[in-house]
């Protein structure tokens, strides 16, 4: 589970995002990071039950993203993120971009997966797959349990114009115009603090597994 001290650290960091404060609280950071690594380890164990394609070589420590921000090209010069991100949880072997992500931030935590902003070649292939096999995708995203967890899949950002070669009046044009093919579910602080929170998060992500299978088939 995520410990209350981890969330407290992130709350305080958001209010004191500077190097001096961070150095004075380095031990708190290290403790919070170790907590997130332990959470990630349990999450991976649970998620493997639903997604057999997850590699047995995944190292929890390497899945926890750096807290240091890259400020070289940003107007925001605060040096640290006010969250912990858990990534590098790829589903399937076709693309490292297709998989799962967990975001831990007081009052703004979520878990999600799929494929966010595919590269041009993959985007073209996914659109073609939708054109040929839209019913397979709709069976996944229109399933009541999926919609309850993740909302309306079609409400993600779409192109303003229709991609070249597709009928603007086609039944599935709302899916073909999507820029991303991802699903996200929010978690409250109280949910993350529960003893079984890794299992709860993994159970949500397990519902995204069929989507990752569809996406991987598209880019084969």
Low-confidence stretches: none
Supply Rg: 19 Å
Helical amount among residues, as a percent range?
A: 40-55%
Quantity of strands, as a count: 4
Characterize the biggest β-sheet: 4 strands, antiparallel
Q: Please count the helical segments.
A: 10
Physical arrangement of strands within the biggest beta sheet: 1-2-3-4
Please, what is the average pLDDT? Answer: 95
Beta-sheet strand percentage? 5-15%
Taken together, the total number of domains comes to 1
Ends: how far apart?
37 Å
Order of helices and strands: HHHHEEEHHHEHHH
What coarse outline follows from CA principal-axis ratios? globular
Organism: Mucilaginibacter paludis DSM 18603
Protein name: TIGR02453 family protein
Pfam families: DUF2461
InterPro entries: CHP02453 (IPR012808), UCP028451 (IPR015996)
